[in-house]
Write a structure and sequence with these properties.
Strand content: 5-15%
Largest sheet: 7 strands, parallel
Radius of gyration: 19 Å
Number of strands: 9
Number of domains: 1
Number of helices: 16
CATH architecture: Alpha-Beta Barrel
Shape: globular
Strand order of the largest sheet: 1-4-5-6-7-8-9
Order of helices and strands: HHHHEHEEHHHEHHHEHEHEHEHEH
CATH topology: TIM Barrel
CATH class: Alpha Beta
Distance between the termini: 19 Å
């Protein structure tokens, strides 16, 4: 087992800086595109053997130091009572978005070991195949709530913030339910064999510090408290969170993810130098000429300063159309540049 990712998460010495990328399995790979010609995205997520195949594709081809389960943040919404689908050009679309307290009260807490058993089976199958650690994941309450309330993606999150500000009791009821479901789901993933978990709060950067503390922090803390006793790294990641990194650390997690908008060294100081850090190359740099790309990789490594606890990653997920050869070049370059 190549365990340098796990060692770095624990801030232990490593032979070289570990690398994995968010969305490392997906649309930029020809192998994935071939599968998508025969299967929908939800079929890939909900069929264990297919989820395993997609998860393994970048591990076999590109040399990452960790695998992340191929699934989708929204998978828990359907058993909650919020069915959704992916529409071409529009992304996820929730059939009946939440608009009122009655809509929240109609949701149901469920047992992930039963309702999401196909995800857990994919984890069990992957553990038999992998020679690198497996990361499980889930969406955080705010991010899941934005999809549930907006009915899909939104640029301004006006409906979400309108409910949050206008009906705070309803908001906390919804966020509390989501926190319980996510905590149960992550715990079940660890029980099935996930060796680390990541909580994605993709849209949390839309909030200021006061709103985060009032409307989000208690529920995220509840998730991590529910994982007490599990001896696995817990990564806490959001985008556009330079102003929130200290609060995210307060909310919980043993590794803090930093997106590309905040220099890695500054982000590490804000989160606390006693925590592991993950990041933080801009995903669009993977489209840049090789010289510029690797110079920016070196800048991230320089800012990490060789301190224990750095996991090299992007500041968000790999974008469609990303040249595969550039992804491989970054993985190889990080390994070569940090060999000890």
């Amino acid at each position: 087992m190549n365990d340098r990712f796990l060692r770095a998460c624990r801030r232990e010495p490593v032979d070289r800086t570990p690398v994995w990328f968010m969305r490392q399995a997906g649309r930029y790979m020809a192998e994935y595109q071939a599968l998508r010609k025969r299967h929908t995205l939800l079929e890939l997520c909900r069929t264990p053997e297919l989820a395993v195949e997609v998860t393994l594709q970048p591990i076999k081809a590109l040399g990452f130091d960790a695998a992340i389960l191929f699934s989708d943040l929204l998978i828990p919404l359907a058993p909650l009572g919020l069915p959704f689908d992916f529409q071409s050009g529009e992304g996820p679309v929730v059939e009946k978005p939440i608009r009122s307290r009655a809509d929240v009260e109609a949701l149901r807490r469920f047992e992930p070991r039963e309702e999401l058993g196909m995800v857990l089976e994919a984890i069990r199958l992957l553990r038999r195949e992998l020679k690198v650690p497996l990361i499980g994941f889930a969406g955080a309450p705010f991010t899941l709530a934005t999809y549930a309330i907006e009915g899909g993606s939104s640029k301004n999150l006006a409906l979400t913030k309108g409910l949050m500000y206008g009906e705070p009791d309803t908001w906390h009821q919804l966020a509390g339910l989501l926190a319980d479901v996510v905590s149960d789901y992550l715990r079940a993933q660890v029980e099935a064999g996930a060796q680390a978990v990541q909580l994605f709060d993709s849209w949390i950067g839309a909030l200021d510090e006061a709103d985060y503390r009032e409307f989000v922090l208690p529920h995220v803390a509840r998730i991590f408290e529910g994982l007490d006793g599990l001896d696995v790294p817990q990564i806490h990641f959001g985008t556009a969170t330079g102003h929130l990194l200290g609060l995210q650390r307060e909310a919980g997690g043993t590794v803090v993810g930093v997106d590309w908008r905040t220099p890695l060294d500054e982000g590490w100081e804000r989160a606390g130098l006693d925590v592991a850090i993950q990041g933080n190359l801009d995903p669009t740099l993977l489209f840049a000429p090789r010289e510029r790309l690797l110079a920016r990789v070196d800048d991230v490594l320089r800012r990490a300063g060789g301190r224990p606890g750095h996991i090299f990653n992007l500041g968000h997920g790999i974008l469609p159309g990303t040249p595969v050869e550039n992804v491989k070049a970054v993985v190889d370059h990080v390994h070569e540049a940090t060999a000890r």
